Automatic annotation (TrEMBL):
<feature type="active site">
    <location>
        <position position="44"/>
    </location>
</feature>
<dbReference type="InterPro" id="IPR016162">
    <property type="entry name" value="Ald_DH_N"/>
</dbReference>
<dbReference type="InterPro" id="IPR015590">
    <property type="entry name" value="Aldehyde_DH_dom"/>
</dbReference>
<dbReference type="InterPro" id="IPR016161">
    <property type="entry name" value="Ald_DH/histidinol_DH"/>
</dbReference>
<dbReference type="InterPro" id="IPR016160">
    <property type="entry name" value="Ald_DH_CS_CYS"/>
</dbReference>
<dbReference type="InterPro" id="IPR029510">
    <property type="entry name" value="Ald_DH_CS_GLU"/>
</dbReference>
<comment type="similarity">
    <text>Belongs to the aldehyde dehydrogenase family.</text>
</comment>
<dbReference type="InterPro" id="IPR016163">
    <property type="entry name" value="Ald_DH_C"/>
</dbReference>
<keyword id="KW-0560">Oxidoreductase</keyword>
<dbReference type="Pfam" id="PF00171">
    <property type="entry name" value="Aldedh"/>
</dbReference>
<feature type="domain" description="Aldehyde dehydrogenase">
    <location>
        <begin position="1"/>
        <end position="269"/>
    </location>
</feature>
<protein>
    <recommendedName>
        <fullName>Aldehyde dehydrogenase domain-containing protein</fullName>
    </recommendedName>
</protein>
<dbReference type="GO" id="GO:0016620">
    <property type="term" value="F:oxidoreductase activity, acting on the aldehyde or oxo group of donors, NAD or NADP as acceptor"/>
</dbReference>
Length: 273
């Protein structure tokens, strides 16, 4: 872990390093790369990816995408939707449907094909998630589902849903890296306003938008300050599509032709004859 990683970052024979992990550790690695031999580094770091759900979306699909955007792999997913913005006119129905879907989730052995929700990676992370939930409750966000450890052996956390989350709250700004859905409401027709709220973060890894209006989809996807934007889907990546973040989510690309350039050098040779 840290011993091996630090040795690689410090080693004078290494000229290029790629790292995927937390912003905090990315900052440490970047300093080491600079001090050691100014080695080139690409970083894929933390995220708080916004997912904007407009009233003119396909609501059935929006619920499915909202669920998978947060709960895929128990939320241990770098591009998980860290905050859902739901337009006011469909907010209550969206929340109601999400809760119904959460109740149907099969919690159990991740090696069982019938399981929809497995355990968290380790106890320290589970404890961190429970603390995260506790902070959300103390800040007066509304805990509408889950929020507790499952009463069974293993590091299982119930899928958790918060509503009435305001922009200043800790859970609105910090990544959980767990199965915790953070829902904020925005006013009907407030396109520019919700985009500004979605961009008001130091992270910029991924984002998403649900709408049947292609003009609105193009406008919002262009204005969202993130390296990836999913339109009417989520988590749908491709090996040919460059992947990487903006701001404190890092820089450099994985996947696609652009990823190859991270490991290449451009050289100019000038002849006179």
């Amino acid at each position: 872990g840290s011993v091996c990683g630090q040795a690689i970052a410090d080693h004078p024979d290494v000229r290029k390093l790629g790292f995927t992990g937390s912003t905090e550790i990315g900052q440490v690695i970047m300093k080491s790369c600079a001090v050691s031999n100014l080695k080139k580094v690409s970083l894929e770091l933390g995220g708080k990816s916004p997912f904007i759900i407009f009233a003119d979306c396909d609501l059935d699909k929006a619920v499915r995408m909202g669920m998978s955007s947060v709960f895929f792999n128990k939320g241990e997913n770098c591009i998980a939707a860290g905050r859902l913005f739901v337009e006011e006119s469909i907010h209550d129905e969206f929340v109601s449907r999400v809760i119904e879907e959460c109740k149907k989730m099969v919690i159990g052995d991740p090696l069982n094909r019938g399981t929809a929700h497995g355990p968290q990676n380790h106890k320290a992370h589970l404890d961190k998630l429970l603390e995260y939930i506790d902070i959300g409750v103390k800040e007066s966000a509304t805990l509408v589902y889950g929020g507790k450890r499952v009463d069974r052996p293993g590091y299982f956390l119930h899928p958790t849903v918060f509503t009435n989350v305001e922009d200043h709250m800790y859970i609105a700004k910090e990544e959980s890296f767990g199965p915790i859905m953070i829902i904020s409401k925005f006013g009907n027709g407030q396109v520019e306003e919700v985009v500004a709220r979605a961009n008001n973060t130091e992270f910029g890894l991924a984002s998403g938008v649900m709408t049947k209006d292609i003009g609105k989809a193009l406008l919002v996807s262009e204005k969202l300050d993130a390296g990836t934007c999913f339109v009417n889907t989520y988590n749908k990546t491709d090996v040919a599509a460059p992947f990487g973040g903006f701001k404190q989510s890092g820089f450099g690309k994985d996947l696609g032709e652009e990823a190859l350039h991270e490991y290449l050098k451009t050289k100019t040779i000038t002849f006179e004859y």
